[in-house]
């Protein structure tokens, strides 16, 4: 009898230990699964492909319906306004670089949307007589000029809208036409809703080429000059004379 009692007690202790171990393992597995879920949540592009993300439903659906075009397709003469003074200095109209995209929103209202632009100009496409030529002994300028800016629009109703940024004539004449125009639309939480990458494939650039340090480290084999130089001056359309053209197509800039 004593022997049977001892065997039963040992079996009970083993079962209890096994149960405790199972509970600990189950808890650990549940915790790990939770971590996996939280670290693999996909953040865009959302809406356009129907994937799950932080933003959901109509708030997540913003689609670029017309991409900004590269090359001379985005060159425009400034609208002419008659006024006082001594008259125009330049008798021949000068062209601006005006990059414009159209996008559609599906929420009744979007609090804000940010469009971040990344643009490459090619100096070989600059106006020949104004091309930036180095003096004897000086290194030539970089072939490509990189410009970027972010524009945030607020109180956006459901429907079709436009977004646009500009570079003045002197930039076109000195540094050339756009050969790459990339843009990223994000909501106020930072979710990527839609993108464009016009011209990037032709230069064998990745989707987020502006985040690749290797791209900006490339140099001309003959001169040692970086292929890309960062420059400033890309501005929202509302800060130029083009703000007077079709103003209802654009939402208020924050």
Task: Explain this structure.
The chain has 254 residues and is α+β, with helices and mostly antiparallel strands. It contains three helices and nine strands; from the N terminus they run H-E-E-E-E-H-E-E-H-E-E-E. The radius of gyration is 29 Å and the shape is flat. The relative contact order is 0.18.
Write the layout of secondary structure elements.
Blueprint: H1 2-39, E1 62-66, E2 75-77, E3 95-122, E4 144-167, H2 169-175, E5 177-187, E6 192-198, H3 213-217, E7 228-230, E8 235-236, E9 252-253
Parallel strand pairs: 4-7
Antiparallel strand pairs: 1-3, 2-3, 3-4, 3-5, 4-8, 4-9, 5-6
Ends distance: 86 Å
Find the count of extended strands (DSSP E, 2+ residues).
Answer: 9
Tell me the domain tally: 2
Runs with pLDDT <50, length 5+?
Answer: 1-54
What class would the helix/strand composition place it in? alpha+beta
Instruction: Average the pLDDT over all residues and give the rounded result.
Output: 79
Radius of gyration: 29 Å
CATH architectural label of the largest domain:
Distorted Sandwich
Helical content stands at 10-25%
CATH class bucket of the largest domain: Mainly Beta
Into which percentage range does the β-strand content fall? 25-35%
Shape, principal axes of CA atoms: flat
The CATH topology of the largest domain: Coagulation Factor XIII, Chain A, domain 1
Q: Main β-sheet, in a few words?
A: 9 strands, mixed
Helix and strand run: HEEEEHEEHEEE
């Amino acid at each position: 009898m004593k022997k049977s009692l001892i065997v039963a007690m040992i079996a009970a202790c083993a079962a209890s230990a096994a149960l405790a171990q199972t509970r600990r393992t189950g808890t650990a597995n549940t915790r790990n699964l939770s971590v996996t879920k939280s670290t693999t949540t996909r953040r865009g592009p959302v809406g356009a492909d129907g994937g799950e993300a932080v933003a959901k439903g109509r708030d997540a659906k913003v689609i670029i319906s017309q991409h900004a075009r590269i090359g001379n397709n985005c060159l425009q003469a400034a609208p002419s306004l008659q006024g006082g003074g001594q008259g125009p200095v330049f008798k021949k109209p000068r062209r601006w670089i005006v990059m414009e995209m159209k996008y559609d929103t599906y929420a009744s209202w979007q609090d804000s949307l940010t469009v971040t632009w990344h643009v490459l100009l090619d100096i070989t496409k600059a106006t020949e007589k104004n091309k930036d030529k180095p003096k004897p002994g000086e290194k030539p300028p970089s072939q490509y000029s990189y410009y970027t800016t972010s524009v945030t629009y607020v109180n956006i109703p459901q429907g079709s809208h436009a977004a646009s940024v500009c570079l003045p004539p002197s930039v076109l004449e000195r540094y050339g036409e756009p050969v790459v125009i990339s843009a990223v639309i994000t909501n106020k939480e930072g979710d990527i809703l839609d993108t464009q990458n016009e011209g990037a494939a032709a230069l064998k650039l990745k989707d987020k080429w502006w985040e690749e340090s290797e791209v900006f480290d490339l140099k001309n084999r003959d001169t040692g000059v970086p292929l890309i130089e960062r420059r400033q001056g890309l501005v929202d359309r509302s800060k130029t004379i083009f703000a007077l053209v079709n103003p209802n197509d654009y939402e208020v800039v924050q």
